[in-house]
Design a protein that fits this description.
Elements lengths: L1 E6 L3 H12 L1 H8 L3 E7 L13 E2 L2 H5 L4 E6 L7 H10 L3 E4 L2 H17 L4 E2 L11 H7 L5 E7 L2 H13 L3 H10 L8 H4 L2 H15 L1 E2 L6 E2 L7 H9 L2 E12 L2 E12 L11 E8 L3 E8 L3 H17 L10 E4 L9 E2 L1 E6 L2 H8 L2 E4 L6 E6 L2 E2 H9 L4 E8 L1
Parallel strand pairs: 1-2, 1-4, 2-3, 4-5, 5-6, 8-14, 9-11, 11-20
Antiparallel strand pairs: 7-10, 7-12, 10-11, 12-13, 15-19, 16-18, 16-20, 17-18
Bound molecules: L-homoserine (HSE).
């Protein structure tokens, strides 16, 4: 029997219990042993819930119980999760987590402890919810050098952008609808400002390039400035606007960025809509590959966490090597990265040409402004023009 302790009985935690109960028999067969949930740590009591008999309020009970082999952490946030997880690993318990803040900040250190102790620190659910992406990066794609990962890594913003496009609504109206439906938090900042996607691409980049990518170093823009008019222009160009979290290696330099992009119908991420997530990767020998599915939610996330627990059970005292050193990867300044830009200015074509040179006009019949696409230019050159004028209404990068 393999004893497991669950830290957190919120949405994902209750999903973990549901998955363990629903698929108990097949999970045990796949793990090669019986997975026994011994404790659930939560500050609250759950009278009437069968889980109540396993509830403990003090982490010491779990930390000091040598019969616990695996700790599942689904509390979220850096503390006290970091302290609890580190202590579990140091005392020889494998840890599975869905906690992207924890993994992005302390992943390299926690992986190192797990390696020293010959146990495992697994975090499939921290990126893309139920979509397998961490394990593929760490096992299936190891013959390749990954030179690009671009993902739609946040379901809330993808839902908002999809609904704005489908119904021609503005950001605030759709955000309110998303909050009413439970797709967006009452405080939506982490999602709509891109911070959530930023942590996730930091994790994927660290794994893809094998070195610590600090999320604080990643240029991040959210979707709060995207308007119904921008979407009209996107449609006129046969494109959709997506919040893209991207990490690319170009001539040995790694650029990472989270920002809205105008995606063409040819792009594999074009039709990823609503709350779905997808991750596109390019390997130097494999070429293109894409992973698609439910990137959030109780059961998809719990599915990934429980799969990690099964993997931890299969490798109880055998570390699965994960290529992520604590040595920091210096990201290149995005100012040298080059793209075409879609731009709206107050003014006419002559003004657009005076500012940006050769441009391609996109006409959706909005009075007093002109929308156009620039030729390929660097971020720095775009910023220079933008600083020289007050007339830019908005700009969105073209994803070519
Ligand atoms: N708020 C996140 C999302 C949840 O919308 O994708 C999953 O990390």
């Amino acid at each position: 029997m393999i004893n497991v302790a669950l830290l957190g009985y919120g949405t994902v935690g209750s999903g973990v219990v549901e998955v363990l109960n629903t698929n108990q028999e097949s999970i045990n067969k796949k793990a090669g042993d019986e997975i026994n949930l011994k404790y659930v740590l939560d500050l609250r009591d759950f009278p009437g819930d069968p889980i109540q008999e396993k509830i403990v309020h003090d982490y010491e009970v779990i930390a000091n119980d040598d019969s616990i082999d695996i700790v599942i952490e689904v509390m979220g946030g850096v503390e006290p999760a970091y302290t609890f997880v580190k202590r579990a690993l140091e005392s020889g318990k494998s840890v599975c987590t869905s906690n992207k803040e924890l993994v992005a900040k302390h992943g390299a250190e926690l992986l190192k402890i797990a390696k020293e102790k010959n146990i495992n620190f697994l975090f499939e659910a921290s990126v893309g919810g139920g979509i397998p992406i961490i394990r593929p990066l760490n096992s299936s794609l190891t013959a390749d050098e990954i030179d690009e990962i671009t993902g739609i890594l946040n379901g809330t913003t993808n839902y908002i952008l999809s609904k704005m496009a489908d119904e021609g609504l503005d950001f605030d109206t759709v955000l309110k609808d998303a909050q009413d439906k439970g797709y967006a938090e009452r405080n939506p900042e982490a999602d709509v400002e891109g911070y959530d996607a930023c942590r996730k691409i930091a994790i994927l980049s660290s794994l893809a390039f094998g070195q610590q990518v600090d999320y604080e170093d990643i240029y991040t823009e959210g979707i709060t400035k995207i308007t119904a008019e921008d979407i009209k222009y996107a449609k006129a160009m046969g494109r959709s606007i997506k919040l893209l979290a991207s990490s690319k290696k170009v001539d040995g330099k790694v650029y990472a960025m989270v920002a809205p992009g105008m995606v063409s119908t040819m792009h594999p991420l074009y039709s990823v809509s609503n709350v779905f997530n997808a991750i596109f990767a390019h390997g130097n020998v494999l070429g293109d590959v894409m992973f698609y599915g439910s990137g959030a939610g109780k059961l998809p996330t719990a599915s990934a966490v429980v799969a990690d627990a099964v993997d931890a059970a299969k490798h109880l005292h055998q570390n699965i090597i994960t290529f992520w050193s604590s040595e920091k990867l210096a990201l290149s300044d995005i100012s040298t990265s080059k793209k075409r830009f879609f731009v709206r200015i107050n003014g006419d074509l002559a003004k657009a040409k005076a500012l940006f040179g050769n441009v391609t006009v996109v006409d959706v019949g909005i009075q007093g402004e002109v929308g156009f696409v620039t030729e390929v230019m660097s971020e720095a050159d775009f910023a220079k023009v933008a600083e020289s004028t007050q007339c830019i209404v908005n700009r969105i990068r073209m994803e070519d």
